Amino acid sequence: MPTKTHLIANGAIIDDPWVFIDDDLPLGDTPSIISLDRLKTEADALRSRNAKLGVVLRTDTQGKTKLGEDVRELAPYLDMLSIIAIDFPVYRNGRGYSDARILREEMGFDGELRAIGEVLFDQWSFMARCGFTAFEIDADIPLKTFNEALSELGEAYQPASDNQRGVLWRRHGL
Amino acid sequence: MYRYDEFDHKIVTDRVNQFRGQVNRRINGEITEDAFKPLRLMNGVYLQLHAYMLRVAIPYGTLSSKQMRMQAHIARKYDRGYGHFTTRQNIQYNWPALDRIPDLLDELASVEMHAIQTSGNCIRNVTADQYAGAIADEIEDPRIISEIIRQWSTFHPEFSYLPRKFKIAVTGHKNDRAAIKLHDIGIVIVRNNQGEIGYEVHVGGGQGRSPFIAKKLADFVPAEKLLAYLEAVMRVYNMLGRRDNSYKARIKILVHETGEAEMRRLVEEEFSKIDSSQMLNLPEAELERIAAYFAPPNYESLPAQSDSFETAKQNNAEFSHWVKTNLVAHKTPGYGIVNISLKPIGGIPGDATDAQMDVIADLAERYALDEVRVTHEQNLVLPHVKLDDVKEVYDILSNHELATPNIGLISDSIACPGLDYCNLANARSIPLAQEISTHFADLDKQYDIGELKIKISGCINACGHHHVGHIGILGVDKKGTEFYQISLGGSADEKASLGDITGQAFTEDKVVDAVDTIVETYLDLRQPEERFLDTYRRVGMEPFKEQLYAD
Amino acid sequence: MAQHSSKGARFQAVTANRLNDGEVVYFKDNGWVEDFAEAEIADGLEAAEALLTRASPDNLEVFILDPYLFEVSESDNGFTPVSVRENIRAKGPTVRLDLGKQATAH
Ligand code: HEM
Ligand code: SF4
Question: Domain Nitrite/Sulfite reductase ferredoxin-like: where (chain B) (predicted)?
Fold first, then answer.
């Protein structure tokens, strides 16, 4: 994982207004991203909080857990969340692509979906197609490189969470 | 055959350009090997013992003459004059230099071919019955749905970093020649009571360290819903498949640990969610568009019998032997399906030289309505040859060592590359295939033995399908020396079964003797009309074991 | 992977594959040679580890893939690799004597 990252959201490099807050630290009034566990246990109190809230879905850092956290557990809390971050502990662990599509297509989440962890060049376009809108990537990578990566493969056969319909349908004007 | 439209062309050429950039960045030192390795693997480039290996996809095993000629050209220009046809209907080149692979891929793209997803933890090249479109009693040509699956799975954004690789096979015929029950997903094309065509879906088969026969999860998925159903299976796997241990990461382990009924429930639940948007409903117009490419070619109307063919058989015993093993009945009167054995006695299973590939391309163009097929048993097929022409085709094949009359016989064994090439191997596979075929070279003996499939892998990964060999041979390593474990009774067809291990492993010099003992035991025990597999299923392991470990 | 090296072995050498063409190479003096006969041989465990350290690239300028130690043994006509695998890497496929290093050997 890169030691220093910057954030690309909706096609621009931006200052990250969000802070990841560890479970044992108090929540302030700044936009905060907390764990799924904390969200579940403190949900009632959090509903009356006055700042924006986000959650991070994790597998463990080695990518060795049998499963990651279940994205569908977020259903009762979606209206409270402005951002959902999904952790890719290693780029090879592609579970987060399914999480993202479920959030977008099944659960209708329309806030920021952020990819964190090992978020590399050759995964960006797939992530974007699955509904990610923000990417924490190596701070040395310029925006131009990021944009090139997204446009390397110009066509897609299948629909996903972006607005490309998929060649199998487009051929027939669908 | 399917032809690319502008979309297909763009997708493949974009990919070649992308890979060229990646190779350049690696060679210039801008990216590390750690970062590059998964990229090259996704483009079919492995590092083997002596050099790189490139695996080129031959979707559902179908090639035109032009595409076959390109393989000959690539073998000559980028490799050392040969290619290796594999059990997954692909072709592998064993010596290309990394810095020339982008050029090679450009040339491949010019004939509508690629190496996309021939490796890596993604949905791999789809395989299908090699007699597709040519065999009688087929419900539907399996290449239609295979091509749709190929397109749907290409660069699938959700399923390119699965827990492990994922292989799909399709058959449209009750006799399974595509080993569908040994795939992550096996599809059987079926017809329901209303006469509609649909797809039976089997999930969780596989070989490797822990072999499993797939479980049937759905009896009938209509064409329109197949992609949604497949996405449901893939999503359940991507969410729940194990990532903690690569040996337990295939979907077969998930199915096994979850149980068939629960797995079916999970898939159906996921399916109903995915299907609710109707987004993946396959447009009928697209199904028809693709089906049109696989419409029957222009067969001539011919009498069922060819006089010249019958005469040639009577006058030439060798030809008539070859016809018996290598020619299969075609659905169209006056035509036959010609099998080209890539198993010359003492040769390397699956290898073909550039010159041989050129010859086969010419034959396909002149006599076989421009098609060649690759079989998962590492042979080739000319699917539509007029019986009137069969003798001529045979003569030309004979001149190029391509007319060995041994399809399905003991010398037609499958072997993976093994320790002669492969980085993961424990032991060599090819020399065993060569020794066995030389030992049983006598044709009369081979005919007497009858159908007997030997399958050899150089390690537990089972690329040589040893679990499903009537006789399976597996290379194991003991302190740097090669040993071989033998199993009996495996089968990859519609009555798929996994072989049973005979007992202690054999040293290399004892393997041929052991196979000989097994064969002699069978010949002693068989009843009239019984194939090896039938006898084994009737009498079991004991008599074989007694003979094998007698002293 | 069937690689047999280190513990208990007296003589060892370091091998790898070259990035641009995958060729099997052996470490020698601060560089790499194609012919096993020229490989630098380490005598004893400590020497072997020192050899591997010298051979292991720690930056991208070195285009050699995954160097590792393997056991060799001494005979009358010099050293030979001990395992079947390393013999095949040093020579070429046993089923195609016309290919690999053995094809150009004198
Ligand atoms: C030389 C490079 C090769 C490497 C590194 C390689 C690697 C592997 C590995 C690691 C597996 C086990 C996968 C698992 O169980 O999860 C496997 C299985 C398999 N490979 Fe290969 N293989 C190679 C060549 C081949 C060739 C030449 C063929 C075809 C002749 C082939 C066809 C297969 C098949 C059919 C399976 C087993 C079926 C399955 O479980 O999916 N492979 N290979
Ligand atoms: S079975 Fe083993 S030795 Fe044979 S090709 Fe596969 S990985 Fe290599």
Answer: 52-110, 348-397
